[in-house]
Specification:
about 15% strand; alpha/beta; 3-stranded mixed beta sheet; 6-stranded parallel beta sheet
């Protein structure tokens, strides 16, 4: 059962990095019957409010992109909030999608919830195959619960609930607040401000040795819509490029795009996180989808958006 143009589509988290990209791509593809609510309008952790929303709107399609997210610092300092808020959001939305007979639901996980020492590249089957990365364990446990919940509703009731596992994302509407952001937006902001201030050096966390995969968020949105149109399986599907880069190489690329000429100082006293995280995207490739935006071009697009939207960006 696939998503069709007349369907009423609720994008939970429509103003965030992921949700806003999905909304942009839906509109580009001719899906215009879209529903969204800001956090001020609808608190997804409140069960009664979520149920009232579903009762009123009766969406045909639900894309669950709303989540409490953040980098190593945010996850390490507020694990209780990361666990509680994400589980509340998921439980409320998934249960209402079942109760109100939603035609199809897409749940978005994240490759950071795979085991810390998962085989590389990481196949979908690696989930729950070993200990989690300690720096984001609370988030991972919550998101794993959401993935499994979709699977259980599918098995028990036949609900068409599917899940995907995007890799590290970046692009328009990202979070550039240094204490809560991920590595890419943090680098963009640091190098940008250092260039403006003519600072002699920029400090980055860790050793720079971990390997990471990065996907431009508009590509991720396109993959999500592709799955809604073409996939009904129980197994979650990795979304990524299948290409990796070291954090040091990433820093050099970001510095080059921004045009900062000062020194990079690595603070090795700070944590690196998972040593390597590359997704096996063969299942997605076999279904017929591949990414389009390569890393340097994606960084250029992300930096262009940041420069043009500094006043509105999350700083």
């Amino acid at each position: 059962m696939k998503m069709e143009k007349p369907d009423k589509i609720y994008v939970a988290g429509h103003r965030g990095l992921v949700g806003s990209a999905i909304v942009r791509r839906l509109k580009e593809k001719g899906y215009t019957n879209l529903v969204g609510r800001t956090h001020a309008e609808l608190d997804l952790t409140e069960q009664a409010d979520v149920r009232s929303f579903f009762e009123t709107e009766r969406p045909d399609i639900v894309i669950l992109a709303a989540a409490k997210v953040g980098g190593i610092h945010a996850n390490s300092t507020a694990p209780a909030e990361f666990a509680y808020e994400n589980m509340q959001i998921q439980c409320n939305v998934i249960k209402c999608a079942h109760d109100y007979q939603v035609k199809k639901l897409l749940f978005l996980g994240s490759t950071c919830i795979y085991p810390r020492m998962a085989p590389q590249p990481i196949p979908e089957e690696a989930l729950l195959g070993g200990p989690l990365e300690e720096t984001n364990e609370a988030y991972a446990i919550a998101k794993i619960a959401g993935l499994e919940m979709c699977k259980f509703f599918k098995r028990q009731y036949g609900d068409n609930f599917i899940s995907c596992m995007p890799t590290n994302l970046y692009g328009p509407e990202d979070n550039y607040e240094l204490q809560g952001s991920h590595v890419m937006p943090a680098m963009i902001r640091k190098f940008h401000e250092a260039k403006k201030m003519n600072a002699p050096s920029v400090e980055l966390w860790g050793t720079g040795t971990p390997m990471r995969e990065f996907l431009y968020v508009d590509d991720m949105a396109d993959a999500c819509i592709f799955l809604l149109e073409h996939y009904d399986g129980e197994q979650h599907v990795n979304i990524g490029t299948g290409q990796e880069v070291s954090i040091k190489e990433l820093a050099e690329t970001v510095r080059q795009v921004i045009g900062y000429t000062g020194e990079i100082r690595w603070n090795s006293a700070m944590p690196d996180g998972t040593p390597r995280k590359l997704t096996d995207v063969s299942r997605l490739h076999d279904l017929g989808w591949r990414h389009r935006v390569e890393l340097q071009e994606g960084i250029r697009l992300a930096y262009k958006w940041f420069c043009e939207n500094t006043e509105q960006a999350r700083l």
